[in-house]
Structures are given as C-alpha cells and as structure tokens.
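Sequence only, no structure available. Ideas?
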Amino acid sequence: MLLASIGIYGLLAYMVGQRSREIGIRMALGAGRVGVLKLFLQKGTALASLGIVAGMVVPASTASLMGGLLYGVRPHDPAVFVIVPLLLFAVAVLASYLPAWRATRVNPIVALRES
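Reply:
I predicted one. Tokens follow.
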C-alpha cells in the first residue's frame, strides 16, 4: 500500500512539475483553483482506476492456479476482491490530492517566467 501511494504521488508530482507552465497559463486566463484541483484529481483517479481494474483482472483469472499456494485463504475470497481495490482507490485519491493542491498554489507569473 505504501509503495502504491508513493508511486502515485511521484507520478503526479512529476506531472505537475512538467505542466507548471500550462497551469500558469490556465490560471492567468482565469481558471480557478477548483478547476485546476479537479483537473489533476481526475487524472490521478483515472490512472488509479485503470491500474486497479488491470490489477484485478489478472488475479481473478489466475486465482484458481494459485489456490494450491495459499494457506488459510480461498482463491476467490470476496473480501480480498472488494476491500483491497477500495482501499487502493482511497489511497490513490489521497496520494493525488497533495500534488493537485500544490498545483493550485502555482503563481501564474512565476510559472510563466520559469519557462
């Protein structure tokens, strides 16, 4: 869980850094902080959702093969297939909120000057 949240945070922080000029232009043209926050939160949750769906398809299809290696857990345990994706999604939203919030604090003049 920690590794997933660090990875999502790192990816979004890098994306915000790469797009600082675009954020400055958007804010200089009148985009509000809520709009910028929403933009990056949508990007983060979309990436996390895609990863969670892809990460659930493979284990669901290969769970029967792994059944012999599991001790004390059924291969198709509904708690694992429901709770883990929800928990990962919650962590992804929290991990993407910080870079998104930081993007709303970009000063348009400084962002345009740094290019």
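The chain has a mean pLDDT of 82.
Hope that gets you unstuck.
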